[in-house]
User: Fold these one by one.
Assistant:
Number 1:
Amino acid sequence: MYVIGSACIEEKAGECVDVCPVDCIEEGDDQFYIDTDICISCGACEAACPVASIFYFEDLPEDQKHYFDKAVEYYKNK
Ligand code: SF4
């Protein structure tokens, strides 16, 4: 699955939402979040993001790994 990382904070461009074929990206308080249970790993959002904030999970930079947990928490608590 894909994860939205730190560059989205306060940027929130939102192009990812329009290209996701399974409608699994939502706007949170400070960033957009991908629902990792629904994401089909198509990569469309990664290509559309103007600030290169979206990574395939395994490619997330070490210092951004916690954004996966942040996304899981977001969908658990909504
Ligand atoms: Fe949606 Fe595809 Fe991005 Fe997953 S990888 S969030 S399915 S656009």
Number 2:
Amino acid sequence: MAYANLTVDARPDGITWVAIDRPKALNAFNAATLLELEQVIEEASRDPNLRVLVLTGGGEKAFVAGADIAEMSTMGPTKARVFSSIGHRVFDKLERLSVPTIAMVNGFALGGGMELALACDLVYASDRAKFGQPEVNLGVIPGFGGTQRLPRKIGPQRALELCFTGDIIGAEKAREIGIVLEVFPAAELREKVEAIAAKICSKGPLAVAALKRVIIEASACDPRTANALEQETFGVLFGSEDQKEGMNAFLEKRPAKFGGH
Ligand code: CAA
């Protein structure tokens, strides 16, 4: 399927690469791009071959430089609220996708672009990447979930500082405060992310999906419910062929070959 604002490569090895690709606007999210991303996520959720989804920015300069300021500039309150609700809906679907998602941040991740990274499970960045929530400079606030995901990730004080000042920070600082897991030289970023995605693909897909469900869903539950969810899910996995294969392979001292059943 061809998209006007995205480049999608759904590979047979189970890794799907999605680039937000609007170079003339540094990959900024207009509504059309958000809706295309929603379509990709919905297709991904129906793809039995998918193991890992990687999101990145087209071109050399930007991951996503935020929501599209030209498009937003003429919005009134109602249109802006709808625009924000589309961003929330799409990023919630991304967060709840059953397979791991990786943000490979190759340049500017500002405003809605940083919010996209925050909605991914793992964030890796090039040493040229830059992060920030500069909405305050435009007289507005983050609108795609940043006010909620950012403080949960880095604590309210750091989140308030970034949002109050609109400061743009480098990749190393973003790693230090917990937005990014690892920073790699720009020329090595793709091969490093490929290796991490391939490693995840080699694990039992049922266990990987169960981990994501338990860790992400349980964060919204009280501790008793969360622990019950873990116990339930642990038990369910023992009905799978992957569990038999994983444990037999260990006992037979050979690598496991998981089929996802
Ligand atoms: N929306 C629309 N167009 C954008 C854009 C955005 N967010 N960011 C960059 N562009 C466009 C520029 O207008 C410019 O277009 P023209 O060539 O037609 O003039 C082109 O991309 C290249 O940008 P610059 O010339 O500005 O490039 P630069 O290297 O000088 O600066 C930058 C790069 C620091 C990222 C700068 O472009 C910038 O500050 N962009 C805006 C970042 C921002 O404020 N993002 C938050 C948006 S609000 C938001 O995201 C709300 C939300 O949470 C939902």
